[in-house]
Amino acid sequence: QPVVALSGVTKTFDGETAVENISLSIEDGEFVTLLGPSGCGKTTILRILGGFEECDGGRVELDGRSMAGVPPESRAVNTVFQSYALFPHMNVFDNVAFGLRIAGQAETEVRRTVDEALKLVRLEAMGKRMPSELSGGQQQRVAIARAIVNKPRVLLLDEPLSALDYRLRKQMQKELKLLQRTLDIAFVLVTHDQEEAFSMSDRVVVMNDGRIEQVGTPREIYEEPANLYVARFVGEINVLDGTITGRRAESYTAEVEGASVLVKARREFAEGDRVHVLLRPEDFRVEVMKDLEESPDLADKFAKALLKGTVDGTCYRGATYDVDITLDDGKRILVTEFFDEDSESLYFHAGDRVAVGWFEGWEVVLPHE
Ligand code: ADP
Ligand code: MG
Prior knowledge:
Strand order of the largest sheet: 6-7-8-3-9-10
Largest sheet: 6 strands, mixed
Bound molecules: adenosine-5'-diphosphate, magnesium ion
């Protein structure tokens, strides 16, 4: 039985739909991230789960029990907000202990539980500090300790790291993931940052305008995006346009950007269907035309596709470099190349005439939108 079950959840504010027909199950101990741009309804879903907002339609269950009319404090769910919302006049220990004391827990038990929570967020030595004496990252850890101290079934985190600088955010992502494994409870994280979603989550829920576009593991979302919206929201993508011309065993023949190619698609298409062929920058194989002509065995690399184009320029990125290419039919693509170990310079240069193909495998082919 899932710990969280949303079915057909809808919420409207002043006649405007904030979330529409959201259905989602979350398993015990699972790390799920709601990913989408600002205003797409992520916070609204968390607030509905937390009990701060009633939905207009649909059903919310925690551990199989309907949450209709159940107030936030009676749900086994806690929330960590982006603004840490610590009590400024209380020290760290008292901030974390607050809820337990309100609930009337004995002081010896409070001490033991708070010490344990502070240890989990690596603040065991900071109990006596005031919030103003802590860094942003430490304040966020206090907020997390406070949210886990009474052992909720689900922890909701609304953009908890977005106020932190890049390095600290990366570090906190790993710590949060580790904490989630240690506690072995469900975490529901909200973020607009795809890297953050990918690096932490068991499953990612991609949202757009109040609706769910796709639910899947980070790899499924990246490698098998369900539509152009998802493909474009996560990472760089090249969208080539084409038409299916026939079938050949497991593959289709297609006319793509003016060239005859083979594509291996997981969907069914008929001859004449217009399609998008989606390729990540690292999916391409590119060769300078002159080199290709001199070594015919290289041509095997292009068994599936041979598009021609011209290099517009390159961009150094450390471990890799980007190559911008304009195909002969005018379509511009972005290719990621790895450095050749033996070579001291980039292999591609502006003005090079190049052959473009792609690696063997399943292509993502979508119906034309
Ligand atoms: P996100 O967290 O993804 O940025 P929100 O859930 O905060 O999105 O908002 C979704 C939509 O609902 C937005 O259009 C927002 O303006 C609207 N909205 C959210 N809360 C309220 C509210 N209390 N009153 C009116 N509109 C709201
Ligand atoms: Mg929000």
